[in-house]
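Standup notes
- HV: blocked on the assembly model, inputs below
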Amino acid sequence: MGSAPANSAGANPFVFGRPIVNPTIAKRDIGLMLFIIAVCVAVLIESWDLPPGTFEPLGSGPVPQAIAFLIIGLCLIILARAAIALARHRVPQKTAEELEMEAADAASGFHPRPWSATAVLVMSGLYIVVLYLGVLGFGVVSTFFLLIVILFLLGRPPLRAFAAWVTSFDRAHLPSAMPVFIAIGISVAMGFGCEFVFTKIFYVDLPTG
Amino acid sequence: MAPLFEGITHILTPIPFLLVGLGTFLGIIGGAIPGITGAMMIALTLPLTFNMIPGNALALLIGMYVGAISGGLITATLMRMPGTPAAVMTTFDGYPMARAGQPGRALGFGIAASFVGGIISWIFLVLVSEPLSDLATRFGPFEYFTLVVMAMVLIASVSQGSMVKGLLSGALGMLVAMPGVDPAAGGFPRLTWDVLYLNGGLGLLPVLIGVFAVSQLIADIVDIDRTIERTKFSTKGILMSFKDWKNQAWNMLRSSVIGTWIGILPGIGANIGSIVAYTTAKNMSKTPEKFGTGSEEGIVASESANNATIGGALIPLIAMGIPGSVIDAILIGALMIHAIQPGPTLFLNNPEIVYAMISACLLANIMMYGIMTSSVGKIAQLMFTPRAYVLPPILVFCVIGSFALNNLFFDVWVMLGFGIFGYFLERSKVPLGPFVIGFVLAPIAESKLRSGLMMTDGDFSPVVTRPLPLIFVIISIILLFWPFYQDWKKARNNNAKG
């Protein structure tokens, strides 16, 4: 915990707390803080015309306005720290733990899959839209959604083995194709199981198609 | 004591007993699977409790709370990967001990310490919560408002990483709580942008599930190919010997008291408790050099303290309606969903709920010890379930969970939106704990401030003229500026060294 940067360079400036030394985080901060500031500006505009309180002296506007101003101030501090970090450290400054994890990842050939996460989010959006349209029941839609997402996350090898087994019925492909069978089992059990449990036992009004 | 015995008797009847057992078991499993946190599990379970009576719902959730904090030690010990953030310190000694061929013994120390920590904090919960609640009923609106402000500053100041980001997170949570029809201002809609669905405000469940479950799912999918080191498992040494109990007794007691105290402080959860207890144990140990290499004392300190924070954190929740940790913020949400007003009057208005919660905490700790010692081997196998099978069903649960409260797809989009926002906050190292606590506490703080101002005709001066609010304000200011002062001093020293 709290390990120091492994290759810290130069003196630390003070900008309301320890400055960020990792330019990667600093770059992320800039985008996020600008987005948050934009949201706060929208909040300030929306709350500006709120009427004063009728039964009490405070009214509806001052509290959200005060919070929005506080957030903008904090965002500006973080932006200032990010700018200093980017100006001072072009090369990422990593902690000993981060370096150790990177070495372990490199040894195991690990690569992060941000695009997989994006794809799953897009699929989730489509799943919600199909549920909203109510064309098909929750059980059917969820079973297909689960099957597609599980197979997508498992990657190609099990699907290839499954395709090979389907075309040749060669038992040698079965062990490699097993994850596909498991995926089908989980999807059907979860999709229709959830529909049954939540509509019949917990009385949730799930779309039934 | 009679209400407590009534609570215990109630919790031992079949349905509450089974619910505590189920909650504890599911919590342990969730805690043992990396990527599933206690907060995530409890947020996802909340919709299942809508049809339960409140006491049973709280019993299930508290069982899950105890199970999730305890279950994290399994992965921390066998995989060097804390199942929950609370078990981070356990990895430092649990994993080396397991690697050295004593995984059963390492887990045995952790389980026993968790049990003792849980029981000691439960004793404090029984002894302290009612008197504290009595005291809190005398708080006026300004006292309560400044207490909430102090809690928010405390949460931000101790959240891991940057304090500015902790404060930002808390303030963002408060801002998210603002939209909706404002009853105190004549029912006028506020920050709704003419969206009718926003008149009721952003729902607690969609926001919670988004921030804690969906953001974690996104992070898990990004890292889905990461391989994890694992050690061979055997149950040899899972039960501690009398000699071990004797050797660790003082360490367990001290760490449990530290954990309970840290838990009582508003907003600080199990991870901080285990860090403080671990550091204290190391500083007081005769063999500090062993810490980090497989020290029994290290495992015991970390695990006693993180479980002790549960009972500790329930104290401010029950007595004052102030969450002692992120999970307690979700429990406050559970109370509100069941139309129970959290706060100092909880003891007066709903004593049966309070004692059901307290009794569930005791039973869950006992069950946790039984389940963990008898079936930790089988539970450990679940850690190796491919995440491709686990994550998509959780996503479906997230959709159901956010839809279930109002049967609105708008809530599902809110959940997805906050999931993405939460993921980007985490990527920027903005802690999520203060966000949720800010979201839960903001309406309380605002309503108390308004009540106070109505009483004083718009005069803010009681914040500094009344003794208790003044004390809370002074503590808030010290808490706010102390980390900045320390950092400024550090930066100055570094600059002086050149």
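- HV (later): unblocked. Chain A is about 70% helix and 0% strand. Confidence is low (pLDDT under 50) at residues 1-13 of chain A.
- Next: hand off to the docking folks.
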